[in-house]
Amino acid sequence: MFKRFQTDTLNWILIIGVVLLVFEFIFFQGGSLIHALFSAIFIYIGWKNFHKLWGKILFWIFLISFIFSVFNILAVRFLIAAILVLWILEYARNKKEVEFIAPTPSASEIKQGTIIEMEPLFDHKWFEDQKTDDTAYGWRDINIHSVYGDKVIDLSNTVLPNDTAVISIRHVMGKIEVHVPYEVEVSIHHSSVFGRAHIFGKHHWKLMNKSLLYQTENYDTTFPRVKIITSVFSGDIEVKRI
User: Per the domain annotation, does 103 fall within a domain?
Assistant: First the structure.
């Protein structure tokens, strides 16, 4: 929608939003922020037990509470107002334009070659579990961020490139599982504020604001190989051979 606006404009909007967020936390004791975080925790608990009646009730009650808390945050109100203003400006600009001239590509642009848009394996799903297909699928590097849910990546159903495949996941709450075939070399860099890690028989039962780095013996010299980079606020990671 706002592709014509410069990145600096959008960056300034985000910076102002962050400043308002800090201002509200310092001078108003972060009332709405704390209430939103409190509600988010119970949303997660309700989601994990959604198959039970009390889980459904807990989820929907605190989801509504979370929405109201978020809209009471000063920074969120500012961002909504800024988006509306940008949308109005964009709409007004489009109404004034009566002619579109397609630029002729320069020689340097032609030499760049053709690029192909591909469908990613995972999209950014904030509140959903995600799992790779149980049948064969084509490999594409994974680079996502999410809030709730479990992520399961099974590499036994795909053919990795004769290079370095990359899995990058930034997650708030939930479990990450990666199933790796025995012939694939692996490098794992995991950071967690709260959680546990089980990596090829290495068990860390209590991670608190800690980073882990493991790699298999022949990772630097052997292909195929996969580089796993994960960051979790509260959750577990399990990397195992299958």
Answer: no
74-96 and 7-27 helices, crossing angle to 10°? 160
Residue 78, SS3 per DSSP: helix
Strands 142-146 and 237-241: unpaired
Please give the angle made by the CA atoms of 219, 210 and 172, to the nearest 5 degrees. Answer: 95
Q: Are residues 77 and 159 in the same domain?
A: no
Q: Determine, yes or no, domain membership for 106.
A: no
Which pTM value belongs to this model?
Answer: 0.57
Mean pLDDT in each 10-residue stretch from start to end of the chain (242 residues)?
54 74 70 80 86 87 86 79 78 60 55 69 73 85 86 90 90 89 93 90 87 92 93 90 90
Which residues constitute the domain of residue 172? 130-241
Is position 118 within any domain? no
Other C-beta atoms lying within 10 Å of the C-beta of residue 20: 17
User: Is 86 contained in some domain?
Assistant: yes
